[in-house]
Design goal:
Shape: globular
Strand content: under 5%
Radius of gyration: 17 Å
Mean pLDDT: 92
Number of strands: 0
Bound molecules: fe (ii) ion
Number of helices: 11
Protein backbone atom coordinates (compact mmCIF):
# COMPACT_ATOMS: atom_id res chain seq x y z
CA UNK A 1 0.00 0.00 0.00
CA UNK A 2 1.25 3.49 -0.75
CA UNK A 3 1.53 5.93 2.16
CA UNK A 4 -1.68 7.88 1.41
CA UNK A 5 -3.72 4.65 1.36
CA UNK A 6 -2.11 3.51 4.60
CA UNK A 7 -2.98 6.85 6.24
CA UNK A 8 -6.53 6.53 4.98
CA UNK A 9 -6.89 2.97 6.24
CA UNK A 10 -5.27 3.80 9.58
CA UNK A 11 -7.62 6.72 10.10
CA UNK A 12 -10.79 4.88 9.09
CA UNK A 13 -9.94 1.43 10.26
CA UNK A 14 -9.05 2.29 13.82
CA UNK A 15 -10.79 3.26 17.03
CA UNK A 16 -14.54 3.71 16.96
CA UNK A 17 -14.81 3.67 13.18
CA UNK A 18 -13.22 0.23 12.88
CA UNK A 19 -16.47 -1.66 13.50
CA UNK A 20 -18.46 0.81 11.40
CA UNK A 21 -16.10 0.53 8.43
CA UNK A 22 -16.11 -3.26 8.40
CA UNK A 23 -19.91 -3.30 8.62
CA UNK A 24 -20.33 -0.85 5.71
CA UNK A 25 -17.87 -2.90 3.64
CA UNK A 26 -19.80 -6.05 4.57
CA UNK A 27 -23.09 -4.50 3.48
CA UNK A 28 -21.69 -3.42 0.12
CA UNK A 29 -20.42 -6.95 -0.55
CA UNK A 30 -23.60 -8.61 0.70
CA UNK A 31 -25.85 -6.39 -1.47
CA UNK A 32 -24.07 -7.79 -4.54
CA UNK A 33 -24.53 -11.32 -3.21
CA UNK A 34 -28.25 -10.69 -2.64
CA UNK A 35 -28.56 -9.36 -6.20
CA UNK A 36 -26.74 -12.44 -7.53
CA UNK A 37 -29.09 -14.77 -5.62
CA UNK A 38 -32.18 -12.85 -6.73
CA UNK A 39 -31.23 -12.82 -10.41
CA UNK A 40 -30.44 -16.52 -10.30
CA UNK A 41 -33.87 -17.21 -8.80
CA UNK A 42 -35.55 -14.86 -11.31
CA UNK A 43 -33.97 -16.80 -14.18
CA UNK A 44 -36.08 -19.76 -13.03
CA UNK A 45 -39.24 -17.71 -12.40
CA UNK A 46 -39.08 -16.14 -15.87
CA UNK A 47 -37.34 -18.86 -17.92
CA UNK A 48 -37.94 -17.03 -21.21
CA UNK A 49 -35.61 -14.28 -19.87
CA UNK A 50 -33.18 -16.69 -18.21
CA UNK A 51 -30.19 -15.69 -20.37
CA UNK A 52 -30.44 -12.01 -19.44
CA UNK A 53 -30.98 -12.74 -15.73
CA UNK A 54 -27.99 -15.08 -15.66
CA UNK A 55 -25.85 -12.43 -17.36
CA UNK A 56 -26.97 -9.94 -14.70
CA UNK A 57 -26.17 -12.49 -11.98
CA UNK A 58 -22.64 -12.81 -13.39
CA UNK A 59 -22.27 -9.03 -13.36
CA UNK A 60 -23.32 -8.92 -9.68
CA UNK A 61 -20.79 -11.60 -8.89
CA UNK A 62 -18.07 -9.43 -10.48
CA UNK A 63 -19.28 -6.46 -8.42
CA UNK A 64 -19.00 -8.52 -5.23
CA UNK A 65 -15.44 -9.47 -6.15
CA UNK A 66 -14.68 -5.80 -6.84
CA UNK A 67 -15.80 -4.77 -3.36
CA UNK A 68 -13.93 -7.70 -1.82
CA UNK A 69 -10.79 -6.42 -3.57
CA UNK A 70 -11.42 -2.97 -2.06
CA UNK A 71 -11.54 -4.48 1.43
CA UNK A 72 -8.38 -6.51 0.84
CA UNK A 73 -6.65 -3.45 -0.55
CA UNK A 74 -7.27 -1.61 2.72
CA UNK A 75 -6.73 -4.69 4.89
CA UNK A 76 -10.29 -4.44 6.15
CA UNK A 77 -12.23 -7.53 7.18
CA UNK A 78 -15.84 -7.02 6.07
CA UNK A 79 -18.47 -7.90 8.67
CA UNK A 80 -20.47 -10.28 6.49
CA UNK A 81 -22.38 -11.74 9.43
CA UNK A 82 -23.85 -8.34 10.28
CA UNK A 83 -24.58 -7.69 6.60
CA UNK A 84 -26.30 -11.03 6.04
CA UNK A 85 -28.49 -10.33 9.04
CA UNK A 86 -29.28 -6.82 7.79
CA UNK A 87 -30.75 -8.22 4.57
CA UNK A 88 -32.57 -11.14 6.22
CA UNK A 89 -36.11 -9.69 6.28
CA UNK A 90 -35.84 -8.53 2.70
CA UNK A 91 -34.45 -11.93 1.68
CA UNK A 92 -37.36 -13.71 3.39
CA UNK A 93 -39.86 -11.42 1.62
CA UNK A 94 -38.24 -12.22 -1.75
CA UNK A 95 -38.14 -15.98 -1.11
CA UNK A 96 -41.72 -15.97 0.11
CA UNK A 97 -42.90 -14.15 -3.04
CA UNK A 98 -40.83 -16.48 -5.24
CA UNK A 99 -42.51 -19.54 -3.74
CA UNK A 100 -45.90 -17.97 -4.48
CA UNK A 101 -44.70 -17.06 -7.96
CA UNK A 102 -45.37 -13.34 -7.36
CA UNK A 103 -42.92 -12.20 -10.01
CA UNK A 104 -43.76 -8.47 -9.77
CA UNK A 105 -43.13 -8.53 -6.02
CA UNK A 106 -39.77 -10.27 -6.48
CA UNK A 107 -38.74 -7.75 -9.13
CA UNK A 108 -39.73 -4.77 -6.99
CA UNK A 109 -37.82 -6.14 -3.99
CA UNK A 110 -34.73 -6.44 -6.21
CA UNK A 111 -35.19 -2.92 -7.65
CA UNK A 112 -35.92 -1.06 -4.39
CA UNK A 113 -34.52 -3.23 -1.63
CA UNK A 114 -31.28 -4.22 -3.30
CA UNK A 115 -30.48 -1.85 -6.18
CA UNK A 116 -31.78 1.45 -4.74
CA UNK A 117 -30.43 0.64 -1.29
CA UNK A 118 -27.02 -0.38 -2.66
CA UNK A 119 -26.80 2.63 -5.00
CA UNK A 120 -27.55 4.90 -2.05
CA UNK A 121 -24.49 3.50 -0.28
CA UNK A 122 -22.32 3.54 -3.41
CA UNK A 123 -23.03 7.20 -4.23
CA UNK A 124 -22.33 8.24 -0.64
CA UNK A 125 -19.27 6.04 -0.36
CA UNK A 126 -17.63 7.85 -3.29
CA UNK A 127 -17.16 10.95 -1.13
CA UNK A 128 -14.99 9.12 1.41
CA UNK A 129 -13.43 6.36 -0.72
CA UNK A 130 -9.70 5.88 -1.21
CA UNK A 131 -8.45 6.04 -4.79
CA UNK A 132 -8.71 2.30 -5.47
CA UNK A 133 -12.20 1.91 -3.98
CA UNK A 134 -13.32 5.07 -5.75
CA UNK A 135 -12.36 3.58 -9.11
CA UNK A 136 -14.11 0.27 -8.37
CA UNK A 137 -17.26 1.91 -6.97
CA UNK A 138 -17.48 4.36 -9.89
CA UNK A 139 -17.28 1.46 -12.39
CA UNK A 140 -20.06 -0.39 -10.51
CA UNK A 141 -22.27 2.72 -10.56
CA UNK A 142 -21.62 3.09 -14.32
CA UNK A 143 -22.64 -0.57 -14.79
CA UNK A 144 -26.02 0.16 -13.23
CA UNK A 145 -26.73 2.77 -15.88
CA UNK A 146 -25.18 0.98 -18.84
CA UNK A 147 -26.71 -2.49 -18.55
CA UNK A 148 -30.23 -3.31 -19.64
CA UNK A 149 -32.39 -3.19 -16.53
CA UNK A 150 -34.67 -6.13 -17.10
CA UNK A 151 -36.50 -5.80 -13.74
CA UNK A 152 -37.69 -2.26 -14.43
CA UNK A 153 -38.39 -3.03 -18.10
CA UNK A 154 -40.56 -6.07 -17.21
CA UNK A 155 -42.50 -4.10 -14.58
CA UNK A 156 -43.01 -1.22 -17.05
CA UNK A 157 -44.36 -3.61 -19.70
CA UNK A 158 -46.77 -5.25 -17.24
CA UNK A 159 -47.48 -2.09 -15.25
CA UNK A 160 -51.26 -1.98 -15.68
CA UNK A 161 -51.68 -5.56 -14.53
CA UNK A 162 -49.29 -5.45 -11.58
CA UNK A 163 -49.79 -1.88 -10.34
CA UNK A 164 -51.92 -2.87 -7.32
CA UNK A 165 -49.52 -5.65 -6.33
CA UNK A 166 -46.64 -3.17 -6.55
CA UNK A 167 -48.38 -0.68 -4.27
CA UNK A 168 -48.86 -3.35 -1.60
CA UNK A 169 -45.28 -4.61 -1.98
CA UNK A 170 -43.95 -1.08 -1.89
CA UNK A 171 -45.47 -0.49 1.53
CA UNK A 172 -43.90 -3.66 2.90
CA UNK A 173 -40.51 -3.14 1.28
CA UNK A 174 -40.22 0.54 2.14
CA UNK A 175 -40.75 -0.28 5.80
CA UNK A 176 -37.91 -2.81 5.66
CA UNK A 177 -35.58 -0.44 3.81
CA UNK A 178 -36.26 2.37 6.28
CA UNK A 179 -35.33 -0.01 9.09
CA UNK A 180 -32.15 -0.97 7.23
CA UNK A 181 -31.21 2.68 6.66
CA UNK A 182 -31.79 3.37 10.37
CA UNK A 183 -29.46 0.51 11.30
CA UNK A 184 -26.78 1.73 8.90
CA UNK A 185 -27.02 5.38 9.93
CA UNK A 186 -24.64 5.36 12.93
CA UNK A 187 -21.99 3.32 11.14
CA UNK A 188 -22.23 5.58 8.09
CA UNK A 189 -21.85 8.64 10.33
CA UNK A 190 -18.78 7.13 11.98
CA UNK A 191 -17.00 7.02 8.61
CA UNK A 192 -18.16 10.46 7.48
CA UNK A 193 -21.49 9.89 5.69
CA UNK A 194 -24.38 11.91 7.09
CA UNK A 195 -27.88 10.59 7.70
CA UNK A 196 -29.19 13.46 5.59
CA UNK A 197 -27.23 12.48 2.49
CA UNK A 198 -28.19 8.82 2.91
CA UNK A 199 -31.91 9.68 3.05
CA UNK A 200 -31.62 12.22 0.24
CA UNK A 201 -29.85 9.78 -2.08
CA UNK A 202 -32.31 7.01 -1.32
CA UNK A 203 -35.25 9.27 -2.27
CA UNK A 204 -33.48 10.19 -5.54
CA UNK A 205 -32.92 6.50 -6.35
CA UNK A 206 -36.46 5.53 -5.33
CA UNK A 207 -38.01 8.27 -7.47
CA UNK A 208 -35.83 7.34 -10.45
CA UNK A 209 -36.73 3.63 -10.24
CA UNK A 210 -40.47 4.07 -9.73
CA UNK A 211 -40.83 6.61 -12.52
CA UNK A 212 -39.06 4.23 -14.89
CA UNK A 213 -41.52 1.51 -13.91
CA UNK A 214 -44.46 3.78 -14.74
CA UNK A 215 -45.61 5.53 -11.55
CA UNK A 216 -46.28 9.25 -11.85
CA UNK A 217 -44.90 11.91 -9.51
CA UNK A 218 -48.07 12.11 -7.42
CA UNK A 219 -48.17 8.32 -6.93
CA UNK A 220 -44.50 8.22 -5.97
CA UNK A 221 -44.96 10.99 -3.41
CA UNK A 222 -47.97 9.20 -1.93
CA UNK A 223 -46.13 5.87 -1.78
CA UNK A 224 -43.12 7.50 -0.16
CA UNK A 225 -45.08 9.40 2.49
CA UNK A 226 -47.42 6.54 3.42
CA UNK A 227 -46.49 5.00 6.78
FE1 LIG B 1 -24.20 -4.76 -8.50
Amino acid sequence: MVQSQMDYATKLYSGTSQVAFSRIKGIMIQAEQEAYNNFTRLSKLLPEQADVFLRLAKMESRHREGFEDCSRHLHVIPDTEFAEQLFSDLRCAFQDAAVKHQVATCLLIQVLGVECFASTLHKNYLSIADEFSHRVTRAIIDDKYSHFNLCEAWLRTHFKVVQDELQVTNRQVLLLIRRMLDRVELDAQAIGISQYSLTEEFIVQYDEALSQIGFNARNILRMLSRK
